[in-house]
Design goal:
single chain; about 0% strand; rod-shaped
Length: about 90
């Protein structure tokens, strides 16, 4: 599976926690306007939008970009591909 499985596990834990918080606030304020807001937002929506966005989407996307060379397309695989298509690694940046 590789070390990238931890990204999936972390994302799953974050989603479960955030969805639990969303349903909690949904139940607490069901049928009424909340007595307080967080940044002008309903507490459940605050969890949905900024928290899930910052804690889930951005780290997973950045991790993919940072780990692409190491786990998805290694330098060796890239050179193999260039040989297969008939390009030398020195001319790849032209």
């Amino acid at each position: 599976m590789g070390p990238a499985i931890w990204l999936g596990v972390i994302a799953l834990v974050i989603w479960v926690c955030c969805l639990s918080a969303i349903f909690y606030y949904w139940g607490v304020f069901k049928g009424e306007f909340p007595s307080y807001t967080i940044g002008g937002m309903h507490p459940g929506f605050f969890v949905l939008f900024p928290v899930m966005w910052l804690l889930s989407f951005i780290p997973v996307t950045l991790s993919y970009a940072l780990l692409f060379d190491k786990w998805i397309l290694t330098e060796e695989s890239w050179r193999e591909y260039l040989k297969k298509v008939g390009k030398s690694p020195e001319v790849e940046h032209e």
